[in-house]
Design brief:
Elements lengths: L16 H15 L8 H14 L5 H8 L3 H15 L10 H20 L3 E7 L5 H13 L7 E8 L2 H9 L1 E3 L2 H4 L2 H7 E6 L2 E6 L1 H6 E5 L12 E6 L8 H13 L1 E9 L13 E3 L4 E4 L1
Parallel strand pairs: 1-2, 1-7, 2-6, 7-8
Antiparallel strand pairs: 3-5, 4-5, 8-10, 9-10
Helix pairs in contact: 1-3, 2-4, 5-6
The structure holds S-adenosylmethionine.
The site of S-adenosylmethionine has 23 residues, from loops.
GO biological process, one term: methylation
Pfam family, one: CheR
InterPro entries: Bact_Chemotaxis_MeTrfase, Chemotaxis_MeTrfase_CheR, CheR_C, CheR_MeTrfase, CheR_N, CheR_N_sf, SAM-dependent_MTases_sf
């Protein structure tokens, strides 16, 4: 059986179930992403551009290339993961998490930071940085002097391109619909991007956020222990064993009493992972 070609990719051959299975094993090993056979048309549509860009005409050749050794194969494995991951995000996404943070978590952390203590946030799977900058703005609202204290937001992602956008801190005009007007005026400056007006994150939130490349299924060169972790809409693409492993490793990086926020369609089985205790909607305390 040959899996049907996607629209707009007619010059690239179809993908056989054998090649798809090889690709799925590689994607699982490299990025933790789970690709059941039902995703073959989507995978094919997303990778057809890569196949063409490399001057290849068949998926079999593409799978051979990404399975190889050496720099070209390694680079293309990165491109492959970038093409297959979803980077959708926005400022103040799932706002109930930020309400809970402000009401139940920030007051204690502000007191600690002002007493000279360390406060660490982590946006794991940060995509283009909106989640991390949302956290930075809320930290600044709670303690305008945050930059002078030991307060940081670590923002990590697998994908170097989304990290570059996060570091640039420049976003399209639709940001105005995502950020409350007061915070937009306080923490952004309007810029022109081609024909369109956009927004650039101002210096105060930028100072608090550090962007780093990190693959969640590889070793983590992270020494910090965190007070607040946002890992939302990332493990949803992993298989159950990889997801469980990521939650366990995140818990190792969390301070006792710290809090983890996960995506709206994700759940942690606290009977299986008793180091977490449910604490609100898709929020978990480290016991
Ligand atoms: C849908 S975005 C979520 C962004 C943000 N957390 C939110 O909820 O709005 C998922 C992000 O996870 C990243 N990602 C996927 N697999 C990853 C992995 N193995 N390690 C690190 N990041 C990964 C993707 O590159 C993508 O930017």
């Amino acid at each position: 059986m040959i899996i049907a070609a996607g629209a707009g990719s007619s010059r690239v051959s179809s993908i056989t179930p054998e090649d798809f299975a090889r690709l799925a094993r590689l994607v699982q090993a490299e990025g933790g992403l789970s690709l059941p056979a039902s995703k073959a048309p989507l995978v094919r549509a997303r990778l057809a551009r890569r196949v063409r860009a490399l001057g290849l005409t068949s998926f079999a050749d593409y799978v051979d290339l990404v399975s190889g050794q050496g720099t070209a194969a390694r680079r293309e494995r990165e491109e492959m993961l970038y093409a297959l991951t979803t980077n959708v995000t926005r400022f103040f996404r799932e706002p109930h998490h930020f309400d809970a943070l402000c009401q139940r978590v920030l007051p204690g952390l502000v007191a600690r930071a002002r007493a000279g203590g360390r406060v660490r946030f982590w946006s794991a799977g940060c995509s283009t940085g909106e989640e991390a900058y949302t956290l930075a703005m809320l930290l600044l609202e709670a303690m305008p002097e945050a930059a002078t204290l030991d307060v940081q937001v670590l923002a990590t992602d697998l994908d170097r391109r989304v990290l570059a956008i996060g570091r640039s801190g420049i976003y399209p005009g639709r940001v105005a619909q995502q950020v409350p007007p007061l915070l937009l005026a306080r923490y952004f400056r309007q810029v022109v991007r081609g024909e369109e007006a956009g927004y650039s994150v101002g210096p105060a939130p930028r100072v608090l956020v550090r962007f780093r490349q990190l693959n969640l299924i590889r070793p983590w060169p992270i020494m910090d222990r965190f007070d607040v972790v946002f890992c939302r809409n990332v493990v949803i693409y992993f298989d159950a064993a990889t997801e469980r492993d990521v939650w366990m490793r995140i818990s190792d990086r969390m301070l006792p009493g710290s809090i983890l926020f996960i995506g709206h369609s994700e759940r942690i089985n606290t009977a299986d992972l008793p180091m977490f205790r449910g604490d609100g909607v898709t929020a978990y305390r480290k016991v």
